[in-house]
Amino acid sequence: MAETNRLSLPAWWQQLLSSQRREVQRVLSEILSTRGMLPLLMKARNGGQWTPEEKALLLAHLRRMAHLSPYLIALLLPGSVLILPMYAWWLDRRRNRRAD
Prior knowledge:
Blueprint: H1 2-8, H2 11-32, H3 37-45, H4 52-74, H5 80-99
Helix pairs in contact: 2-4
């Protein structure tokens, strides 16, 4: 039944949905590749010392997460790309009211 619904959508909408699904899969695979980051972070808090290899691994994990931050906001939630202009308008409206 999902295939029937997908066929009835306009081509531009199908393309939008497929690109969103592709990016969600990419983001999820990047996030899953950072497994083991929390125990590594907690090592210093628990009194341990990081080795140079662990520091390099931790830095790589943090860089990977920093590259994903725009995607986490704009692409993970369905329809969030469409809501983004309204959210920007709302934030601007609040700023203007506070400036008065």
